[in-house]
Amino acid sequence: MSSITSTTASSTQRKQAVDNRADANNLKVVTVVATRGRGAEISEEISYTDTKVIGNGSFGVVYQAKIVHSNEQVAIKKVLQDKRFKNRELQIMKRLDHQNIVQLKFFFFSSGDK
């Protein structure tokens, strides 16, 4: 499974490169500050585009998206928060490591639609 790697360019330079690519292709790019799913809790900016709904259920919606700098296809699960469960699914996914289970690469919190 491929992983997302960060470049040595500054945050401003990366954002400008992402904006330039998005303008050239007329794409909506979403940039979030995400925390790595495994290991040390390191945050970094992740930009994604080409978002479309691929599934939904009572606990959330799953989107397919493409990471801008690597062109990697990813799934983004937007979980409908219920304070009673205190992100139990996230806590479990952070600890899981099995070849037959999808790997949690990053997670982030948002108050918007996507």
Tags for this model:
114 residues; alpha+beta; 5-stranded antiparallel beta sheet; 2 helices; globular; disordered N terminus; ATP-binding; serine/threonine-protein kinase; nucleotide-binding
Describe this structure in words.
With 114 residues, this protein is an alpha+beta fold. It has one domain (11-107): Phosphorylase Kinase, domain 1 (2-Layer Sandwich), CATH 3.30.200. It has 2 helices and 5 strands, in the order H-E-E-E-E-H-E. It has a 5-stranded antiparallel beta sheet with strand order 4-3-2-1-5. The longest helix is centred in the first third of the chain and has 15 residues, at 11-25. The protein is globular, with a radius of gyration of 15 Å. The two termini are 25 Å apart. InterPro entries: GSK-3, Kinase-like_dom_sf, Prot_kinase_dom, Protein_kinase_ATP_BS. It holds the Pfam family Pkinase. ATP binds at residue 78. This is Protein kinase domain-containing protein. Residues 48-114 form the Protein kinase domain.
